[in-house]
Amino acid sequence: MVSSVVEKFQALFVHRYWPVFIALFCLLLTAPVLRGHLKTDDLFHRIVLQGSTTLYEKGYEAARPDKTFLESVNNLFSFVKKDQQNLSELQSIGVVNQWWADPDMQLAFWRPLSAATHWLDYQLWPDNPTMMLFQDMVWFSLLVFSVALFFRELKLSLAVAGLASLLYAIDFSFASPLSWIANRNGVIAAFFGVTAVLLHIRWRKDKSLLTGVLAQVMLFAALLSAEAGIASVAYIGAYAFCLEEGRWRQRITSLLPAFFVVVGWRVLYRYLDYGALNTGLYLDPIQDGIVFISAMLERLPFLLFSQYTGIDSVYNLLSPPAKSMVLGVTLVFLLIILAVFIPMLKINPVARFLMMGSVLAAVPSCAIALPSGRLLFFVSVGASGLVAMLLDKTYQESLRGYANAAQVKLSKVARWFFIAAHLVATPLVWLLLMISLGSGGVYNVPAGIDLDLVEDLDKKDVVIVNAPNPFLFLYILFHDDHDGAKSAKELNIIAPAYTDMTITRISDNTFELVAEEGLMLTAKSHLDASRGGATSTLYAIKIYNSVFRSARKPFVVGDTFAAPGMNILIKEVSSIGEPTRLLYEFDRAEDKVWLTWDNTKEAYFEIALPKLGEVLHFSSTIE
User: Fold this and answer.
1) What average pLDDT does the chain have?
2) Is 428 exposed, middle or buried (0-12, 13-18, 19+ CB in 10 A)?
3) Closest by alpha carbon to 264, among 319, 317, 224, 318?
4) Which of 168, 240, 490, 522 could form a disulfide with 384 if both were Cys (CB 3.0 to 4.6 A apart)?
5) 171: left (phi over 0), alpha (psi -120 to 50) or beta
6) Given the DSSP bridges, would you call strands 560-563 and 510-514 parallel, antiparallel or unpaired?
7) 579: helix, coil or strand?
């Protein structure tokens, strides 16, 4: 018989100050990670908030040192925005080096509340990433405190509510995102969102106008922290359908305040021209409706699978054929989990509320092409509550009274699984991961953008023939500015290193590239799984690089692109619109430094230009 975990810790879970205890415990739990490093988006944030005279003199407006507070917080998550510097301007100054990027691409998110907390970092400790991470941990502790109060507000025993908040706090899917300063927005949105749901429930119980107003304020704060805040509406809607008392008209009416807050936010968001447009990495659930639904049908099961098993980010490492196979296994697993919870769902409206809320909360996360644990802050609330209810001894004993023998046996197996996965393995993995993250030493420039081999780099024009991860070049100038390093006078990327290709010199400054499989530049193309295997980090890298072009924008013969010192003409494309033959024309090709990627040594090396008519062969990094 599975012993009751709830019973063993009951005295602690029912303590009056348990929400405070668990919040403080989270600070202790996350202490090992407090060795902060700026990476990727953190480096962009530094440029926006501190400014950079060097980059501003190059023409990069986001690096202007004398920005106002409002300019900083409104633009901190605006990487490419059409009413600011457009893509061609960013390409001309070297911030964007990917010539194939869609000219209409936009990556601009409105998260002023989260941005304000980063602004505060740079007012108090601008050169101390560790203190910036500490602020992340404080927000996570506040989130767990709010989650603990939320579970106590439901019709659960204090012991079950305490266990549910513990399961949430030790969900190791949160460990990696908590080590990334720029991901703070997800934690803050979850804190305000859970608080909004908590206040909504209290408002529906005590009918206090003040509580109702505060609930809407918290909801708006969640939306101003991150788009993920919309997931709080999932629980507000689930409460109306599962726990709200009264007639259906009254229940639906209770949703109107939240509805108007969300609509008002969305209208304001679009009026200010924020959003992710014409990119393969993000979908807009409204503007990309059909595509979003299709993506949701694939990504939602993986998100829920990750939540209940603790297996994180595997989806992103799978080849397309492997994804199809694993999707089948995932659906079977989820059906088994549903069968486990069915007896509880039949008799307990709180369970129905948590189930409905957690599933609906996962839907907005399907807009991102890389499902992972950092998207589960809202989903985990309902899932943690359901698992805690399943582990409750009272439920275990009552189950024998109305469930058949098969359901009792299945429930017993599930309890063993959840205890092993979430109360034994998860804390151990969390601890190991946090220690690993905390002892990682100095954060180094990724090898894929390390150009230190080039002497007098600031005086040289550099051409990267085959970049292993072009996405990282979005941050190369920010890395150089942070490290006080020199940047290339001019930098061009010919192609990603995903596929075999040949380059032929047909004149002094003109080169022909042929890639029979296509250059894999759009979100629609897929790497060769027969060469890459079932799992590889390259599949995730390919997804990241779909940020530059959506599947809806295939290339066509005759397309031309211009980059500093380089012009490109598409001569042939594949059936899905991937370039297979291209012409590159350079100004003064002989004066440039040409680099190619060595996949074995994981470093660049310089090559000599081919003679006229000579063909150079480059192998895919998938090998």
Assistant:
1) 90
2) exposed
3) 224
4) 168
5) beta
6) unpaired
7) strand
Segment among 218-227, 406-415, 566-575 with least mean pLDDT: 406-415
Q: Which of 564, 542, 563, 546 is nearest to 554 (CA)?
A: 546
What b/e sequence results for 175-211 when a residue is b if at least 16 CB atoms lie within 10 Å of its CB, and e otherwise? Answer: bbbbbbbbbbbbbbbbbbbbbbbbbbbbbbeeeeeeb
> According to the model, what pLDDT value does residue 355 have?
98
Other Cβ atoms within 10 Å of 572 Cβ, number = 14
Write the single-letter amino acid at 376.
Answer: L
Q: Residue 536 and residue 468: Cα distance in Å, rounded?
A: 13
| Token pair in block for residue 490 | 């001019």
- Residue for token digits 């805040």? 229
Mean pLDDT score, 12-35: 84
Do 122 and 76 touch, CB atoms closer than 8 A?
no
Tokens 């530049």 found at? 521
CB atoms within 10 A of CB 102: 20
Distances (CA, A) of 381 to 92, 235, 260: 46, 10, 24
Q: Would you state the structure tokens that stand for residue 242, as one six-digit string?
A: 């599962």
Q: Is the pLDDT of residue 442 over 70?
A: no
